[in-house]
Amino acid sequence: MFVARSIAADHRDLIHDVSFDFHGRRMATCSSDQSVKVWDKSENGDWHCTASWKTHSGSVWRVTWAHPEFGQVLASCSFDRTAAVWEEIVGESNDKLRGQSHWVKRTTLVDSRTSVTDVKFAPKHMGLMLATCSADGVVRIYEAPDVMNLSQWSLQHEISCKLSCSCISWNPSSSRAHSPMIAVGSDDNSPNILAKVQIYEYNENTRKELTSSGGLTKFEIHIVAQFDNHNSQVWRVSWNITGTVLASSGDDGCVRLWKANYMDNWKCTGILKGNGSPVNGSSQQGIFNASLGSANTSLQNSLNGSSASRKQS
Amino acid sequence: MSSLQTGVFLKQVSEDLFQILPPCRNHPSCLTDTSPVVPGADPARTQLCFEWGPAEMLLCETLFGRRGGERRGAPGGSAGPAPTGCGVAGGGDGAPGPSRVFVVRRDQDIYMETLRKLFNESHGIFVGLQRCEEERAARARNAQLVQVSKNYRSVIRACMEDMHQAAISARDSALHSQYSIQVSILSAMELIWNLCEILFVEAAPAGPLLLRLLDWVQLHICDVDNMVREVLGSENPSKHKLFWNVVDIFVLQGRMDEARHLLSKEAIANPTSMNMYKILDDLMKKMPVPSLGNTQTLTEMELKWQHWHEECQRYLQDGTFASNSHMESICKILLGDENAILEKKELMTTWYHFLVTRLLYSHPTVKPMELRFYAQSSMDMFLGEESNPEPLDTILMAAFEFELHQVIKECSVALSNWWFVAHLTDLLDHCKLLQSHNLYFGSNMREFLLLEYASGLFSHHSLWQLGVDYFDHCPEYGRVYLELHIERIPLNTEQKALKVLRICEQRQMHEQVRSICKIMAMKALRNNRLGSALSWSIRAKDAAFATLISDRFLKDYCERGYFSDLDLIDNLGPSMLLSDRLTFLGKYREFHRLYGEKRFSEAARLLLMLMTAHIAPCSFWMTLLTDALPLLEQKEVIFSAEQTYELMRCLEDLTARKLDKQKFQDDDVETMKVEMLRLALARNLARVIVKEGTLEGS
After folding, report:
1. Which of A41, A111, B100, B667 is the 20 to 30 A CA-CA neighbour of A210?
2. Which ranges does the UniProt record give for the WD repeats (chain A) (predicted)?
């Protein structure tokens, strides 16, 4: 059984995101009150707020931690069309005594023309990279070539998803068998547009020489798959730990699981509904076997999902 | 998202604390739970977002639809569609205000403290079992495994004792009941384990099987002891109101000697029944029981038993005991009369006691495979109409039916902790009883359960070390799980980091070693502990980082005029070669040491070498040349002519380079330094030419 302990978050408005750091000993919350708060867990398990500061001039939608190999670094994104990267500064000794720390802004990413709806750091084996997605459907990927200099970020790619994006998730797998992949979910409400979950993949094979115009796309980006079964807005996408199963959750109250077979065809392998019953019309046996944590799930059933084989985007 | 937790998650949604008394649902109704984890959350008003952590989960009330609208004067909100489908009547300012955040964890963690001893000691037994040499002879191997099983059980019992003591001394009533519940859970676990030991590990054959089952029953019905003590302790036992109860219970449990002993008291007190008593006593004395040794075969025993049974029958039919209902009922029990036995339901309290008593008096040579029929019918007879088996009943029944997988499955569902099933399954696997039952998971059940159990341990600040050994003994996925879990251990102290590192290094987990060292180095660097940062990056074999830190050291030196962390730099040894900059740092420090020890010519040589061999970065040359000044100004000539020429060349190289940048000319201090150097070099050259030109001895 579970026990829940409440934390008095003290935000003055709705909280939109909570995020654990890598070790689960720090936490960040962000809110429509335009601020981010950082919490530390003490030895006896209590959570204390060690920093609280205004980060944007609009609602802050998401906050996320970088891997501790890069230090204590946060990224946030907001309705004010920007995303920002923050670093914790080791404070003066009297601050430490009071249990407070300071965060300074290292960079602001202003390329988006609309509300930035999600920001996520890439897996550490890719270096210091992050991706943002915006309400106008553009996913941007940035890299900091010098990991010790958090103020220099360059825009590496812009992916146009053609749909309002609500969430992104990096495939965490560091295996050489797969190129880096990123999944994007959409909260586009128009009934005609169907492909609410898309997966993009880097392909380094077509690396071109840098032309004088710079050329944002050094790598080719393929759309590997798109899924159109969520007949509703998609709010979250998330990969399992081996990067073989993608879960997406939507406004229709369902969680869908997606997996590729050995020919790289992606299909929906399960649908979970809020009360535990499988969705009517799908063959159900495989649902709990296609467990989110499983590394070797066999493709149980191909359901009414359509799959997109590799397409050039 | 830490999906290693998901296996736990799917299991978690099942059940309540396992209790002997109330039934619990035994089908995983997965994602809903009737007891709300989040108190006061109203699905009509807010939605929940969540985040996995290594040991806990975060839940937060929020609204997903609030993407378009904006509050209080922020730039206009035409971005994105208006919020729909989020079920909130009228957003805007009427929407729920500040959200609540919840930290959620499994409550087994609370019990982890109290069960700590159990985890620690069973860990020792587990590791011992994996590592011990397998005995060749089947019988010896069997004995070995039985011993292991007994060890596990004694650990459970010890834990039960502790918990019992804790319950007694608990002042808080809630705490008291918590402990009491734990005691009953542990008691149930021991009961189940004991039965599994008899049926599966020892695999007692017909004959000894019954004896073992009798022991099992005797061990676990404790209420009897109190009653017995009371009666025996009284002045006049045979007059005690519970006297016959105690006699009955002795008979039901096959404790003939004790029953006879009590009966003798009755006979003394009641001489009229002496005759009856003598006969009954004789029957009880003569009752054939299976023997443990090889003194008789089953057939022999059956024959004897048949004769004895007939004799009892005759006495009963002759009405020998007609005048004493107690004795008559005992005789009926001896004859295996089910109704007579059932009359003593309250004394037996459980259907499995009833089962064993039945077997004792109607089929003492029962074979293991026959148990299932007797078990099912016993349960039906005992429970009667309210035949609503509870989880414990289901588990025991599965055991009597020799459905191993069923036993494990039922236990997994009923118990909120993986400890029991993980260790039991591992033991049964060593008994070679589990077919390699390939799960979709890709490995077998034993490994699955051990992985789940060990994963749970990693959320504890010190028990995680036990988890490491469990992962080590999972051949398929143990290593991967360990790699993923060990990275997430919070490295609060250096000691802990070193402990974790040792574990990784022992297992050649190079990437984890590198990552942990990098994290520690970064932390040290942020806190300006350069020495610590440097030693961590050396351990990580991270050349780039070592270079960076060396640069910081050098920069500090330039600013302050002295080195921090001298011990470290002095004792770099071969790790100096990790990066050029680091090598330079080490050598430069050596130069200072030589100078301090007044070993000037060696120092001079080193200094020169640093520049000519290009170990020193160009930015540092000025400093090095400045360091050469005191050597040039010494009374004694230190630099040879050749060396002096070299130095001059270096100086010219330096100024030539600087001239390009044109910054140099504006800097008076720099100009003056260069002038001084030129002068010193020239003077030295003059002196050394004279010295070298002079003949020896003159």
Report:
1. A111
2. 8-40, 227-259
